[in-house]
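Weekly modeling sync, notes
Attendees: S.R. (lead), two postdocs, one rotation student

Agenda item 3: backlog of single-chain predictions. S.R. asked that every request posted to the team notebook include the full sequence so nobody has to chase files. The rotation student volunteered to paste the first one in as an example of the format we agreed on. Action items at the bottom.

Example entry:
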Amino acid sequence: MVSVTPLFSQIWQQHAPTGNIPGKANASAIYHQNQNDIIIFGGKTSAGFTNDIWALNLDSMHWREIIPQSTVNPSVRHTQNAMYDSLRNRMIIWGGQGSGLFNDIWAFDFNDTSWYNLSANGNVSGIPLQRYGTSSVYDPQTDNVISFAGFTTSGRFDDTWKFNIGSNTWTDETNATFPLKRCLYSGCFVPSQRKMIIYGGQNNGNLDDIWQLNIDNFTWTDITPVNKPPARHFPSLVYDGGNNLLLFGGNGLNQNNFSGALNDLWNFSLSTQTWDTLSQGSIKPSARIGHTAIYVQSNQKMIVFGGNEASGLFNNEVWEYSVGNVTSVLETKNKEFFDVNISPNPVKNQVNLSFELYKEQKIVIRILNLLGEQVLPPFNDNKLPKGLHTKKIDLRALLQGVYIISIQKGLDKPYLEKIIKQ
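Predicted structure, as returned to the notebook:
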């Protein structure tokens, strides 16, 4: 049975930013860490589709419009994907719908505030068909954009593609097993596990399944548990940087029936592959469809912007939800193999790690950055006996930031938890 976790300390906070951004739905969003900005591109407004760029600074809570210096820019559109190219300080967008469907890829360079076309629009051999309602992730280790499915010029598809930004080339990576055809779903990237996760969307009705893609060998695995959220499309799904995904809102009815809007909040544990519904308190966003949500790792917040309700667009609505304590509470509740305690956290020099083994096991402890890259030599032990164990780990060699501690027993999936280095 799905459990309800009463997290009364996790309250929503509504912000009232200054600036004149129009109300938007089905826009795309990224987090630009260098400036502590949320970047919003395109989407639907009351005046129609747009191709404008807005930045919300999370320190000043002020919106400013970014005017491109380029003379050729992407066409107006909505339901496109946006990703942050951390190697080049650029925003990548792909696909969407405007006057028609798109399969072009563009890069907005934050250094010279200009757009660059990486792949032209058009249905030609060797690239995905024009589409909208897809989801994509960017992997800086391979310099690939990975995308699945969407609504194409030939209907819904179930194909998997990668686009290498360095060579500007597409490769069809559709494998033997893959999720059902769909569009209007949500997805996110879990770099530490090298996985793209997708949830929900539409086929001949709303979907409620969750799948993971290994982006190294492009194999899909259905990880849908028996107990799960109600089916929906146009929700938001974010990865918290540790071991959990947060799902918020969406439409539980037909695409144009806004009375199906939802505002429930769910957590999916990657370690136990289970869903839990989260108590939100009395102050929370109203039900919405087609909003954007991003995760800010520096202060462990989920930021939600915009979307639609039955009466129309939300005008400059920005909500903030504290994610950090949700992670620790749910991980403590859901752990199958360890009773793990990490202290202090945040940490300055040395972290104390304790865990309990229910039987004799070989344990490997690793420290990773948020890209899943190992940043310290692994802590390898021979088999440890059943019982409680304590390890002291020296973190003085690390810069300030957020890291992941990975504790793996045998060949099982690692248990992951965040460490904040001050």
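Discussion: group reviewed the output briefly. The helical segments are 324-334.
Action items: rotation student to repeat for the remaining queue; S.R. to check formatting next week.
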